[in-house]
Write a structure and sequence with these properties.
This protein has 3 domains: about 5-50, no CATH class; about 60-125, no CATH class; about 175-315, Leucine-rich Repeat Variant (Alpha Horseshoe), CATH 1.25.10. Helices cover about 65% and strands about 5% of the residues. The protein has helices at about 5-15, 20-30, 35-50, 60-75, 80-100, 100-125, 135-140, 175-190, 195-210, 225-235, 235-245, 255-265, 270-280, 290-300, 305-315, and strands at about 145-150, 155-165, 165-175.
């Protein structure tokens, strides 16, 4: 997404009135574009100034008089086509505005009130998260990135720093739905390698310990899904290794996990990741795709160590001829 496209969407992004796909692309662009970040900051500053202004009190009589003028304009155009009536109503309304400063003040006041209310609503929504009103999908769509993950001493709580319009912080138990969703998001949108490594490490520990590590339900990303994404796409070999460790418990029962591990064995550029994938595949029985991949790697891989490890794993599989 180019700067011009992002800047056209900044207001919609700040108000949460943009589709998830465009919001994700715009947020990714903002992370790397200083110019667009300045535009966003200017927008945030303007909204903050508007939120501090005192709202003007509008007279009900003025609003009633304005409606009567609009009704008169529509009555006068009653015999024409709908397009003509619409044009006359619009033109007439602007004529009334020029002729009546009070009406112009009214419309300006309505616009100001509406913008101020929207700003206050947005400001309320970027405060501390409320489990009663924030669903996981809404949470993910409003977050730009996760800038920090700090495990707390009791091993059951975590502190997360994340960015919406402004940096935010949330503390909670690892079984809290919002904490879990933020951790899954941190594995994909962590601001740096340390954030992603820490979040994936926590996810892997939860999965290895046998706690809730299911796939997502469509509205939110499950821990297992987050580990699969990290295994396939994260640029850090350390993150990919930790993702493999978290997925090890499920390789025998989950075809999606097994396919991802086979994919890593075939395509991952890091030898340690591929070696770890081989060791995970050794106890798998009854899956011909595992044997086929191990056989291919043992005969065609450029790395002699990987070839030998694959051949040994192939021989250890029960029933291998």
């Amino acid at each position: 997404m180019k700067c011009e496209e992002v800047q056209e969407r900044l207001i919609l992004l700040s108000l949460g009135e943009i589709c998830e796909e465009d919001a994700a692309e715009a947020s990714l662009h903002l992370r790397h574009c200083a110019g667009c970040q300045e535009e966003m900051q200017a927008l945030v500053s303007m909204q903050a100034i508007l939120a501090e202004e005192t709202l003007p009190e509008l007279s009900p009589n003025l609003l009633t008089a304005s409606r009567l003028r609009l009704d008169d304009a529509l009555d006068q155009a009653d015999g024409s086509t709908w397009m003509t009536r619409l044009r006359n109503a619009v033109v007439g309304s602007w004529q009334h505005i020029y002729a009546a400063p009070a009406l112009a003040t009214l419309l300006l006041g309505i616009g100001f009130v509406s913008g101020n209310l929207v700003t206050r609503f947005q400001a309320a929504n970027i405060g501390p998260l409320d489990p009663a009103i924030t669903t996981p999908s809404e949470l993910q769509s409003t977050i730009s990135n996760v800038s920090g993950v700090l495990p707390l001493p009791d091993d059951q709580h975590v502190e997360l720093h994340y960015n919406q319009m402004v940096p935010m912080t949330l503390q909670g138990r690892l079984d809290d739905p919002q904490v879990r969703q933020l951790l899954a998001l941190a594995a994909q949108k962590g601001a740096n390698n340390d954030v992603r490594e820490t979040s994936v490490d926590l996810l892997a520990k939860e999965c290895s310990a046998g706690r809730d590590c299911d796939h997502g339900d469509g509205a939110s990303t499950g821990f297992r899904d987050a580990l699969l994404v990290s295994l396939r796409y994260d640029k850090s070999p350390t993150v990919r290794l930790r993702a493999l460790e978290g997925l090890q418990h499920f390789i025998g029962e989950d075809q999606r996990v097994r396919d991802a591990v086979l994919e890593s064995l075939m395509t991952d550029a890091n030898a340690d990741v591929r070696t770890r994938a081989i060791s995970m595949l050794e106890p798998v029985e009854g899956d011909t795709s595992v044997r086929q991949v191990l056989h291919t790697v043992s005969t065609q891989d450029d790395n002699p160590y990987i070839r030998n490890a694959s051949l040994q794993a192939l021989g250890n599989l029960d029933g291998f001829q």
